[in-house]
What we know:
This protein is mainly beta. The chain has three helices and 38 strands. The protein is 5% helix and 54% strand. Strands 1, 2, 3, 8, 9, 10, 11, 12, 13, 14, 15, 16 and 17 form a 13-stranded antiparallel β-sheet that branches. The protein is globular, with a radius of gyration of 30 Å.
Amino acid sequence: MKKLLLLLLIISFSQAFAQNYKPFNSSTKKLFADFPNIQSTYSMSFDSAQTVGSDSVYFNFFRLPVDYNFVSFDCPFWGGTECWRQDMPVWIGAKIEYDNLYSYKFYPNNGDTIQFNFDLLNGGPSIFYQDSVQKFSLMYEGTDTISTLNYIDSARFFKIYHSDLEGNTINSQLNGQNIVIAKYLGLTQFFQIDSFPQVLKPLHLVGNENPNLGITKITNEMIFDYQPGDEIQYREYYYWNNGPPWENYTRYRKHSILQRTETPDFLKYVMEEQVFYQDSSLVLTDTIEKTYIRNHTIAQLPFEVFDGNYKHFYLAEYCDFELWTFHNKPENSLWYCDFDNVWGPFDTFGPPDEEYLTYALGLGVYIDKLVDYHGGISLYNGHYNNIVYFKKNGVACGELIVGVEQHKKPAWDVSVNPNPARSVVWLSADVAFTKINLIGINGKVLLSETPKSNKVSIDVGHLPDGIYFAKIELVSNAVLTKKIVVLK
C-alpha cells in the first residue's frame, strides 16, 4: 500500500511539474514582461479548468471593467442595480481551448480566434491568424538548450512571420519574434492576446511557479533591501482641515544604514535617524534599529487580480536606477456580491477614504497616501509620505533636504550616536575621517584608527562606565574632540 501511495505521489508531481513541451497546465502561474524593454508585467494564472466534450478549457482570471457593465437584481447595492461584473479578460484572453491533440485556441477581445499547432515540427509555415488585410504564420525553427531565469531547459523555437495577403513582409513588432516553449517551463516567450492584432506586443518570462524562478511574489526581503552606506530621506506630511493648526506638519526623516544583520527569518538594520520639521532649527538625531520579517508577503501571483484593490507591478526609473515597483490602491467604495460575481457601491456615509501605497523594491515604501473623511467632504485628515532622496551603492537620487540648523552647521561637524553608549558608538561626518584616537580621562590612548570613510563604529563594550574623548582628524584638515559617555 505504501509503495502504491508513493507511486501515485510521483505521478501527480510529475504531471504538475513536467510540461513535456506543453505551453501550460491547469496549475500554471507565470509572470511575463514586455520584450525587449520592460515596462509592465502580465500575470498568467487560471481560475479554473474543465473538460468540454473532448477539449480542455482553461479560464483565466478576470479584471474589473472601467464602466458599469451589468444589472444585478440579487445584490442590494447602494444607489441602484448597476454594477461591475468581474469579466474583463486579461492579456491572454478570457479562455484557452486545447483539443488534447495539437490545437490551442486563444480568443482576443475583438471576437476573433487565434489557433496554434505547436506539434507541427515539419513542413512550411502554419497560419495562426488571418483577416482581410494581413496574416500571421508560425514556423518551427528547432529545439535547443536554453537558460531561462538561470534554469537550464530544452526548448522548441517557433518564429512568427507577419505579412500581407500577397506574402509581402510587414515589419511589425511581432515579425521575426519567437514563441518559445520549454520542456519543463512551458511558455517562456509569447505575445499579448487580448488586444491582438491592434496591439502587437512580444513578451518574455520573468517569473514562474513550480519551479519557483524569478519574481513570483513580493516580500519584505525584496522591498527593504539595504546595505551599509545606503541613505533614504522621507517627506512626511500630515493635515487635518478642521483641527488645531499646530497639529499640521511637514517633516523630513533620514535613515543612514550602519549595519545589516540577516537571520533565517529576519532582516535587522542599525541606522542613524535624523528628523526635523520644516522651518524648524531643531534636528533630532538618534541611532535606531528596524527589523523586518523576511518572507512576509506583500503580493503574489497573479499580481494584477482585482480583489478590492487595483494593483500594478512594473519597472520604473528612479534617476539612474531601474527598480521593480508595486502600486496598490484599495477601492473603498465597492463590495463584492458572489451571486452574480459583481462589485457594486455601498453607503460609506460620505466620501470613501482615499489611499494607496507604492513600494519600490530595494527602497521601501516610496509613497504612502491616506485621506480619511469624517462623514463629509469638508471634514478630513490625512497624510502623504514619500521618499524625496536616496543613495544606494554610493549613487544618489533626488535632492537631500536639510533643516535650518544644518545650513548653519560647519562642514567639519561630527555626530556621535548613541551617546551615552553601551556597546558600539557611531561617528559620522560630512567628510571622511583620517585618524581617530580614543582617549581615557587619564590621557591614555585606548584605541587608534585610520579610517577612510565618513562613518566609523567604535566598540566601547569592553570599557568600564565613564567619560572618554575621541580626538578626530578629518580629510578637510579639521581637528576636533568629541566626548563619549559609556554607561551600561
